[in-house]
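User: I'm writing a tutorial on reading structure tokens. Could you give me a worked example: one chain, its sequence, then its tokens, then a sentence or two explaining what the tokens reveal?
Assistant: Sure. Here is the example chain.
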Amino acid sequence: MPKITAPTVAEHREQRRADLLDAAASLMLRSGSFTVAEVATEVGLSRSAVYEYYSSAADLIADVLVDELADWADALERATAGIPDPADRVSAWVAAVLHYVAEGRHALVRAAGSIDLPATRRAEVQGRHRDLVRELHVALVDLGCADPTAVSAFIWGAVNAAITRIEAGSTAAEDETAMVLDFIQGGLAGLVLGR
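And here are its predicted structure tokens:
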């Protein structure tokens, strides 16, 4: 029987799973992809031991994405919590998204984005991706936008353009954040004031 390194078998398995996720994320950030054998080597397990936790590399990538997107959504929720003015919450959300990107954490989501995931896992990842705009949508509802779903899509488009520019090194994150905030605030003022 293999030696466990935690007080219980369940805790040991959870720690192994966390180690596998960390190794997979690290490999994705370094090279954009990985094999099950590379993850096994990184963690110090046999390849067959990895398959006790994950049926495929795509399944492991899906879990990396689900965890990262959940962490990102939590960070966005914390960034907007307690801000009474909905327009200020929108600005805080935009700034938090671009701060995440400037820290380099979006590289993991971008690297995994080109991986072909099983359909059920793809749906789960897409759901987590939609969670990213939850706080933005709430702020837009509170702001009185007639179609908060459409406006959040427009804002995401502007933010996504800023993400592309930041990651390409075309502009400093602070400058890009200031520019996209001016752009979005101007658009929101026009919508709310009916201009």
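What the tokens reveal: The radius of gyration is 20 Å. The chain has two domains: 1-54, 58-193.
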